[in-house]
Amino acid sequence: MRRTPRHAARVVILSPTGSVFLFREDNVEVGIHWLPPGGGIDPGESPEDCVRRELREETGWTDLEPERLLCTWEHDFTYQGVPVRQHEHIYVTTGPRREPVLEAPDIHWRWLSPQRLAALGEPVWPPRLPDLLADIPAQPVHLGLLA
């Protein structure tokens, strides 16, 4: 099947106690999964700029910066009815444990402890996120194409 390339960037936010801020999505095309704030990179936008914009749009937070690239990965799925192969840049940063300023009715979020994240029982994007956060690598990791 031919897939349309799509590029995205996300940011994993860690609280001072190590909890992780994630969204829980449930849609007809992908199903239930947890993922960091972020989304598609606009034309001419850098991955870092995308993270800042998406964080502002999805949480209302404007005071966080991507500190470093954690990993990249690719995955196939259907986005708005179009089969895509998405290449994602996943950044990590630290920030205060707080609620989003924006409260969109269709966005469900939670701060998850490392133990809760590892035992979630629902898919997490990227799939190795709990392992990566348990022992953050010195250099970005390319996870490759994952199902």
Strand and helix layout:
Elements: E1 4-14, E2 20-27, E3 31-35, E4 38-40, H1 47-59, E5 68-79, E6 82-94, E7 108-112, H2 114-118, H3 129-134, E8 141-145
Protein name: ADP-ribose pyrophosphatase YjhB (NUDIX family)
Organism: Streptomyces avidinii
Family: Belongs to the Nudix hydrolase family.
Task: Describe the fold and architecture.
It is a single chain. This protein has 147 residues and is an alpha+beta fold. The protein has one domain (4-145): Nucleoside Triphosphate Pyrophosphohydrolase (Alpha-Beta Complex). 16% of the residues lie in helices and 42% in strands. The chain is built from 3 helices and 8 strands; from the N terminus they run ββββαβββααβ. The chain has helices at 47-59, 114-118, 129-134; strands at 4-14, 20-27, 31-35, 38-40, 68-79, 82-94, 108-112, 141-145. Strands 1, 2, 3, 4, 5, 6, 7 and 8 form an 8-stranded mixed beta sheet that branches. Strand 1 and strand 2 (20-27) form a beta hairpin. The longest helix is centred in the middle third of the chain and has 13 residues, at 47-59. The chain is globular. It starts with a strand and ends with a strand. The mean pLDDT is 94. It comes from Streptomyces avidinii. Its cofactor is Mg(2+). Residues 4-134 form the Nudix hydrolase domain. Belongs to the Nudix hydrolase family.
